[in-house]
Amino acid sequence: DSFQDWSKKLWRRKVLQSEFVTSENLRPELLREKILDIEGKELDLRKYLVGFHLSNLIYGSIHFNKNLRSVNIADNNLTSNAVEPITIALHNNVYVQSFDISSNYLLPKGAILLGSMLHRNRHLTMLNVSNCRLTDFGKNFDGVLKLRVGLEGHPTLRSLNVSSNMLGSRGVLILCALLCENYIINEIDFSKNNYVEAKKKPLLKLLDK
Length: 209
Fold this sequence. Notes:
Low-confidence stretches: none
Shape: globular
Distance between the termini: 49 Å
Order of helices and strands: HHHEHEHEHEHEHEH
Helix content: 40-55%
Structural class: alpha/beta
Radius of gyration: 17 Å
Mean pLDDT: 91
Number of strands: 6
Number of helices: 9
Largest sheet: 6 strands, parallel
């Protein structure tokens, strides 16, 4: 059965029975407690070795928590396949405001998933995708283009971190162009992306609105 069809009771049972909570983690009891917490305002799973098999369970941690304001799954070596259930949990989510998915292996496919999520999510105010190999070492910009489309009409996002993604001048200019459509974003971190500063400056003037 699909994780999207799980009831809260079934999801809880799956978390308690999951062998991956214990087999893939050095702090299993604390991890299980964090996944099962659907009352707290923050879900912080940084460096928890989350892995692919736990991402379906984390979907429930986000989906069933109406108090949740911040999700941090940075530094987990997650691939795009592992990230997909988590991005789906943020579709139409009206509670989470901050999403940190930095230092994972998203690649262009993961950036496409984020763009799709942003198209359906209207409440995030901060997104951190630093160091996620969004361009596959500067070879593929499909994900960056999709990410820009998702950001262009986003009504609430104010802070975006895309540092350390090997965007180069091309990727930076692609994302800078969204500022012609989006007047809400007021902070973008482009640092450590190997771009030519002179090419970026004219578009970044759009931030001075």
